[in-house]
Design goal:
The chain has one domain: 2-Layer Sandwich (GMP Synthetase, Chain A, domain 3), CATH 3.30.300. It has 3 helices and 6 strands, in the order αββααββββ.
């Protein structure tokens, strides 16, 4: 579902990849997109990213698991060091 939403928002939908990584504290969804599409996923003042976060949070509450979301473009991670502008992490509010 996250991949479908992300593909609908970007200019290069075939470049969107979503990975799921399980950890003790929950499940992390990594959205990766083409260079230049990051702004379309983040949106004006982060509105689109907040909407994606809301979807992830609701799904996590329904399943009883904490879900996290990261959004990266092709330039975001080099040598395991994210550029400050490129990686956004969202955590659901604790309930």
């Amino acid at each position: 579902m996250i991949e479908l939403a992300a593909r609908a928002l970007v200019n290069k939908p075939n470049s969107v990849r979503v990975e799921q990584i399980e950890a003790q504290d929950g499940l992390t969804f990594h959205i990766r997109c083409a260079d230049g599409d990051l702004g379309r996923l983040i949106g004006l003042n982060g509105m689109t990213a907040r909407s994606l976060r809301h979807v992830v949070t609701c799904a996590g509450k329904a399943s009883g698991t904490r879900y996290f979301l990261t959004i990266e473009d092709g330039r975001s991670v080099r040598n395991n060091e994210p550029f400050l502008h490129g990686v956004y992490e969202f955590q659901p509010n604790s309930a």
